[in-house]
Design a protein that fits this description.
- The strands form 5 sheets. A 5-stranded parallel β-sheet has the order 13-12-11-14-15.
- The protein is globular.
- It contains 17 helices and 16 strands.
- The longest helix is centred in the N-terminal third of the chain and has 17 residues.
- Helix 2 crosses helix 7, helix 3 runs parallel beside helix 5 and helix 13 packs parallel to helix 17.
- Bound molecules: FE3-S4 cluster (F3S).
- FE3-S4 cluster binds next to strand 11.
């Protein structure tokens, strides 16, 4: 990869060891992908995980004096204030979260702790070159906003934020954004949960190809698109999709295919969507809790839950994970209080894949998101996956069908 004089100076350590390390990593990635050069970015999002390896790298960069030129938004860990007040975390969990907070703060990150910054405070324009990690974020910014990012790792996105540049390869280049798999959807997509199921079922059929969907209405909801990308990029590695009339660079099917025939054509039926979810979901029956917000729930989703539980008492725990923005709005709109009175919780800054859920180990819950079930399963937590309404109903009854 060719570096200009300024980039060579950073690599040589003239701006300190932190930027030099970040540059070294970006150059190595660029060389691995035959990128010809670095190009500037205008935004970044770092999928911090609040786990030891992620923290090791962030602290290493911070100790070396790195500071982000492009302050990135960051993924959730867990809310220190909330879980400490509830007595739900061990001293070592608190210490890890505090160190993660300190490291990213000293790197100059925007401490939003949400995986859906692309809906509020980190929204790119069409064509903007950016560095986004996080499985739900990358497809959304590529496919809905029309920005250009590769499927960055937390570490590569952080290095890009420090240097302010990324290697030019992959989805930054128009030919590589071509849809190569045509996915014909005959299943009913009339609710947001159908998009969770669709995103979960498609990767097995298309591998690493970029899909263009036929059969998704152009008035698909924001939540449907969030769900679709989150599951596509969790069940598989699909950082971009096209929907003609939704994806900015794809006004037509032919534009998505860039005038070429697809390599693969597949059909997705209602039965396939249901079969895939059933295969993954734990068995229905009595449940101990319901968890929503993976990716972080929107205000509209919080409103739906509040409407269903208003004036009623939950039989199980109910957790709604969301951004601090949505939490604040739900307070202002009285939704927080409605859900609190029913026995539920709305919590900001928090992810299901965190060490704040010790008390759920060995228990069974329900969720509307396969991704929500996917990570905690490793911690011994079971999940039945159903639509939002069925899950809320289950929280009111204590069991799910
Ligand atoms: Fe967000 Fe954590 Fe789920 S980052 S998408 S809440 S696994």
């Amino acid at each position: 990869m060719k570096l200009n004089i300024e980039e060579q100076a950073i690599l040589a350590g003239e701006k300190g060891p932190g930027p030099a390390l970040a540059m070294e990593i970006l150059v190595s990635i660029g060389d691995a992908f035959d990128a010809p050069r670095l190009v500037p970015i205008s935004r970044a999002h770092v999928a911090l995980s609040n786990q030891e390896a992620d923290l090791w790298f962030a602290e290493k960069l911070a100790r070396a004096g790195a500071r982000c030129i492009i302050p990135p938004t960051v993924n959730p860990g867990f809310s220190l204030d909330f879980f400490t007040a509830q007595g739900m975390v061990l001293p070592e969990d608190k210490a890890l979260m505090q160190r993660t907070f300190d490291a990213y703060q000293s790197l100059g990150a925007r401490m939003n702790f949400s995986c859906t910054p692309y809906l509020f405070d980190n929204i790119p324009r069409q064509g903007e070159v950016i560095a986004f990690s996080e499985s739900s974020a990358t497809p959304y910014v590529n496919s809905v906003w029309g920005a250009r990012t590769n499927r960055e790792a937390a570490q590569s996105a952080l290095c890009a934020a420090v240097v302010g540049k990324v290697p030019e390869y992959g989805l930054l280049l128009t030919p590589n954004r071509r849809a190569t798999a045509l996915v014909r959807v005959s299943a009913d997509l009339s609710n947001d949960f159908a998009f969770q199921k669709l995103g979960w079922a498609v990767p097995e059929k298309i591998g690493h190809r970029i899909p263009v969907f036929e059969g998704i209405p152009t008035d698909v909801s924001m939540e449907g698109l969030v769900n679709l990308g989150a599951q596509l990029n969790t069940a598989g590695a699909v950082p971009m999709y096209h929907i003609a009339g939704v994806t900015p660079e794809a006004p037509t099917l032919d534009a998505a295919l860039q005038g070429q025939p697809p390599e693969l054509v597949v059909e997705i039926t209602k039965k396939e969507l249901n079969d895939q979810i059933e295969k993954f979901s734990d068995r229905p029956g009595p449940i101990d809790f319901v968890m929503f917000g993976c990716p972080h729930h929107t205000l509209r989703q919080v409103q739906k839950v509040a409407d269903m539980v208003q004036g009623r008492t939950l039989k199980t725990e109910l957790w709604i994970l969301t951004s601090s923005y949505t939490l604040e709005m739900s307070r202002r709109m009285g939704l927080f209080e409605i859900i609190r009175k029913s026995g539920g919780h709305i919590v900001a800054d928090t992810c299901p894949d965190q060490p704040c859920w010790h008390h759920l180990k060995g228990k069974k819950g329900a969720t509307d998101s396969p991704k929500c079930a996917y990570y905690p399963k490793r911690r011994g937590i079971q999940f039945v996956v159903r639509d939002l309404e069925t899950c809320v109903d289950a929280a009111l009854k204590g069991a799910i069908a």
